[in-house]
Amino acid sequence: MSGDHAIFHRVTKSYWALAAVIACLALASGCPVVATTDGLSSSSSSGPSSGPSGGTPASTGVGPGGGAVTGPYILHGHVVTPGEAFDGQVMIDGPLLACVAPGTECEAQHPGVPVFETGGVIAPGLIDTHNHILFDVFDNDDWVPHLPSSCSVDADCSGSPYCTVGSCACTPFGCKYTDHTRWPKEAEYGLMLDYKQCLEDASQGKPVWCPLDYEGTNNSLKCELHKWGSLKGLVAGTTSIVGLPGVSSACFSGLSRPVDVEQNGLATDTVQTSALFPPSKSSADSVCSNFATGKTAAYLIHVGEGVNQKALAEFTTLYDVSSAPGCLYAPGTTVTHGTAFGPQEFEKMAAAKMKLTWSPASNVALYGKTTDIPAALAAGVQVSLAPDWSMGGSQNILDELRFARDWSNKNFSGLLTDKQLVEMVTTNAAAALGLSGSVGLLEQGAVADVVVFGGGASLPYATIVAATPASVRLVLVAGVALYGDKAFEVLAPASPGCDAIDICGVEKFVCVANESEVAKAGQTFALVHDGLEDAFAALDGIKELPASSCGSACKATESCFVRSNLPTAAVSNCGGSCPGGEDCFHVSMSGATPYKCLTVNACAPVKSRKLAPLAPVVRCQ
Length: 621
Prior knowledge:
By secondary structure, this protein is α/β, with parallel strands linked by helices. Among the domains are: 13-123 and 442-491, Urease, subunit C, domain 1; 270-441, Alpha-Beta Barrel (TIM Barrel), CATH 3.20.20; 547-605, no CATH class. It has 14 helices and 23 strands. It has a nine-stranded mixed sheet with strand order 3-2-1-4-15-16-17-19-18. β11 (298-303), α6 and β12 (333-337) form a beta-alpha-beta unit. α4 packs across α14 (525-540) and α7 (343-352) packs across α9. The radius of gyration is 26 Å and the shape is globular. The two termini are 30 Å apart.
């Protein structure tokens, strides 16, 4: 079997066969098949694949003793650090990288450590610096802006009820919004938001028709929402995600690293975020204070999202919002979007050593244009790349890389090289998080976040940019193999075991469950999927009532529903009685009036469509 299609251990076949037989006899159970030249091999001459795809390695069958590989091991392939690329090796030994070196230096330094031939490109785990992870259960089938798709002048956009004067503009991509305050007013977006807030038991409010089934920490599906978004990143080689989940939860750990919450698996959490603009003065002052004390190393904030003067003015607002003007113009601040900015704003950002996160697919879907990256780079601003979310934006960071490449080729005269794009999702992204030297690179002592891409070694950066989840062969987060080709499952945790998953016709393993004592840690892929799928179907099935059930009080854009988002209480809590058509509801856990008489039925926006099924982890091309 060729080096393109096999994984090799540089140990003798006889050792492995003997170890497997001994283990088999000791267990008095069915013996695994020990591979010979179709799996394990004593060959030491095979190099990484140079073909266009690299193929899929054959399964090794077993590790030492017939089970999973539990000790250190070495991956051999074409290594992208990403500062340089070379044929070489990466040694995994626990959560940190023990060796990264050209040729066979790692095995020479660590004789006896098994070596796996990857037949592909070995790179740092990719870093997503901007995602709304709880929304990733949706995609374009659920919502994209509902605006006219063709136009000649801005006035043509007035055919949409959402386009008031100045709120929409005609672009080469049809009618689009002019800033981020406009599209959240769409009823279709509002319905999607209602589903998300209902299932996560959002503190900021839920629709009146939301069942109590999802109330409370144990019943909420926030963990499942987060896991689904994390899985969409993991299968694309993303090992760290800024997911903006709001209130943190212990169940967020275990898949792609939730880098902006305390469950990030790192020594400390020094990342602060703001999904809304402007932040309050007290919030801004808190960030500035944390910058000064070192408590915060990175502050990621949406600024300048849009194409009009209102969006542009947000850059000045960012300067003025704190008690000490300009303290957020700091090296720790990363602007998310900056779509409205020009050379003047980027020059000020560069002078302050501020950074930028670019999400072109989402920008184009919402506003018909994206950030002036040539101007940002010319000014010296460091840029990272991220998918934003999967409605209008990209399904994952690999999709975003390809979108950015194509956009650059068509609109930036091919300015961005494949190497620059890879750096935007590795070293530049790590810098935006204040984690340079820890993640986003392959070097001894760095966190063992590693991804292996199938593909040619002759153009390793292009291989990464062109990759899809189907061509991702292996993903390690802090040294733990969580996703990849079935051939590499021998590297994954043996307990509680991993799930088989088909990714666009390629059989993969994914390790969703883990053995921690955290609630819901033991959920398999199927449990996460089925829990969300059933919930979507249940919410779709909630019936509207006749308008008369709400006393004909609903607006034309509303329907009448049973009020089910609040628990009822004994009427004695509401003074002993409630008017006809009302009941006593428990509206708050604290405050002067935790109970109120409210109508049994209530008006809410029309549920204009059904949102099941759940958006898949991957949409195949």
